[in-house]
Design brief:
Keywords: FAD, Flavoprotein, Oxidoreductase. By secondary structure, the protein is of the alpha+beta class. It folds into three domains: 89 residues, Uridine Diphospho-n-acetylenolpyruvylglucosamine Reductase, domain 2 (2-Layer Sandwich); 111 residues, Uridine Diphospho-n-acetylenolpyruvylglucosamine Reductase, domain 3, CATH 3.30.465.10; 206 residues, Vanillyl-alcohol Oxidase, Chain A, domain 3. It is 27% helix and 22% strand. A hairpin with a 5-residue loop joins strand 7 and strand 8. Helix 1 packs antiparallel against helix 3, helix 8 packs across helix 10 and helix 10 packs antiparallel against helix 11. The longest helix is centred in the C-terminal third of the chain and has 17 residues. The radius of gyration is 22 Å and the shape is globular. Bound molecules: flavin-adenine dinucleotide. The site of flavin-adenine dinucleotide has 34 residues, from strand 3, helix 5 and strand 9.
Length: 460
């Protein structure tokens, strides 16, 4: 977008008038407001705005347009890595849009555009319900839900994006809209997987499920056992029922208090996940994994509300170098390549080298599907090195890229929520769906006012 300095000036004045919390680069609050959750990413937006209401969001979007600036909505900044330069954009922080209400009878939740999953879990659990959150309580519901959303119940109930029931948006022209399958089926289709390309989400409504407990936990081995653990797990995933969702990881855990003592400072192979079945059935499902004699086995009946912390993800802003890709089925050579790049003796600095089990309801077109009806891979790979110092970060980046390259023979596109570096967004969708998303972008955002992490451009 082009902008002339007088318009920018007027627009920024208007922005200050429109929204109580606005930080321009010269303001003392700017430095504290510009950083995302992913601390290795430097964001230098033209302004940071933190509206408290949907009307304020609309006023910010209109003021930004008059100043010739784009708008980049951000809930937390977990996926700030792929965002293009923000010099000509207002970073619109949604964290003050914090409403959470539930309707236990209709099993649905309504949350504001800045709500974190941890805030939802505590509200829905007393009603005997769960939401389809992911592995981390401080991930934002909006970014997660717009880009897909795979969690510990995903193979049973599908991705969160296809469990959305309605969205309230400020459209790129500054108008407010409530969008659902009746009011605007095309835009609603795009929102279920197409990311933040179509407006600022001020509220989302989605389905909840009646689950009070699961059979969940983790199995842990020394990382020198990674080859046999990954070989058995990948084979087991090909036959596992939809009732189980799991991950298998190589972890090099720092010696810090946040890591529980049996794992602190250790290098391990870990399978964790949840089974939606009674104890007897769950034990039968897990038996082939337990046969490998894990040194730690915490699987057992647990409250569904505890799933949000099962994975032990870091909470609070974190610096990390990461890579990701989606993988098809993994033969023995694929398992070997993974362990050689990230396991014992590899020299890898990766804190986490992870495969998430896909398939089940994530591997079949969802009946209420939007732009992302299913994921075509068998596994979502994600790797990261937690690193604050530039040299450690550089090494982490090298190792993350090395793992991605080693697994490239089995790569089949991207699950965009896991992609923390810029990738061609087309790789996240089927060809037809991508084309349709571009057409919808042209309808709702012909001037390219929205700046999303994974950009779907308007059709020419
Ligand atoms: C520690 C960690 C754990 C994770 N665990 C999982 C997991 O278990 N399963 C999974 O599927 N993914 C997981 N992810 C990936 C996660 O889903 C993505 O990072 C997602 O984008 C996070 O959403 P956010 O809103 O917190 O992030 P943000 O970086 O704030 O948002 C990402 C993008 O979403 C869009 N967006 C966000 N808010 C809005 C809004 N209000 N309106 C319009 N657009 C918006 C924007 O385009 C923005 O650039 C994890 C990531 C991390 C770092």
């Amino acid at each position: 977008m082009t902008s002339n300095p007088i318009d920018v000036h007027r627009g920024l004045d208007e922005l200050r008038a429109a929204c109580a919390t606005v930080h321009l680069p010269e303001d003392p609050g700017y430095e504290g407001a510009r950083h995302p959750w992913q601390l290795t990413v430097q964001q230098w937006p033209a302004a940071v705005a933190q509206p408290r209401t949907a009307d304020e969001v609309a006023a910010v979007v209109r003021a930004a347009a008059r100043a010739g600036l784009r708008v980049a909505p951000q809930s937390t900044g977990h996926n700030a890595g792929p965002l293009e330069g923000l010099e000509d954009a207002v970073l619109l922080r949604t964290s003050s849009l914090g409403e959470v209400t539930i309707d236990p009878e209709r099993r649905r939740a309504r949350v504001g555009g800045g709500v974190l999953w941890g805030d939802v879990v505590g509200k829905v659990a007393p009603a005997g319900l769960v939401a389809l959150h992911g592995s981390s309580p401080d991930v934002g519901v909006a970014g997660f839900s717009l880009g897909g959303g795979i969690g510990w119940l995903a193979r049973r109930f599908g991705m969160q994006c296809n469990n959305l029931l309605a969205a309230e948006l400020v459209l790129p022209d500054g108008e407010r809209a409530r969008v659902d399958a009746d009011s605007d089926p095309e835009l609603f289709w795009a929102l279920r997987g197409g990311g933040g390309n179509f407006g600022v989400v001020t509220a989302l409504e989605f389905a909840l499920y009646p689950v009070t407990s699961v059979y969940g936990g983790a199995l842990v081995w020394d990382w020198r056992d990674a080859s046999r653990v990954f070989a058995r797990w990948t084979q087991w995933t090909s036959e596992a029922p939809d009732e189980v969702s799991s991950s298998c990881r190589i972890l090099q855990l720092p010696s810090i208090e946040a890591v529980p003592p049996p794992l602190r400072g250790r290098q391990v192979a870990m399978i964790d996940g949840a089974v939606l079945a009674d104890d007897e059935a769950a034990e039968k499902i897990l038996a082939p994994l337990r046969e490998l004699g894990p040194e730690i086995d915490t699987f057992g009946r647990m409250p569904a509300a505890d799933l949000v912390r099962l994975h032990g993800d870091p909470e609070g802003p974190t610096p990390a170098a990461a890579s990701a890709s989606m993988l098809g089925s993994l033969p023995a050579a694929g398992v070997d390549a993974f362990v050689e790049a990230a396991g014992a003796g590899s020299g890898s600095s990766l804190t986490v080298a992870e495969l998430r089990q896909l398939g089940g309801a994530c591997g079949r077109p969802h009946p209420d599907a939007g732009a992302l009806p299913m994921l075509h891979g068998e596994f979502a790979m994600y790797a990261c090195a937690l690193a604050a110092e530039p040299e450690a970060l550089r090494i982490g980046e090298r190792d993350a890229e090395r793992l991605e390259a080693a697994m490239s023979p089995w790569a089949c596109g991207h699950y965009l929520n896991f992609a923390e570096r810029p990738v061609d967004a087309a790789l996240g969708f089927g060809a037809e769906a991508y084309e349709r998303l571009q057409q919808i972008r042209r309808r709702v955002d012909p001037d390219g006012r929205m700046l999303a992490n994974h950009r779907v451009p308007a059709a020419a």
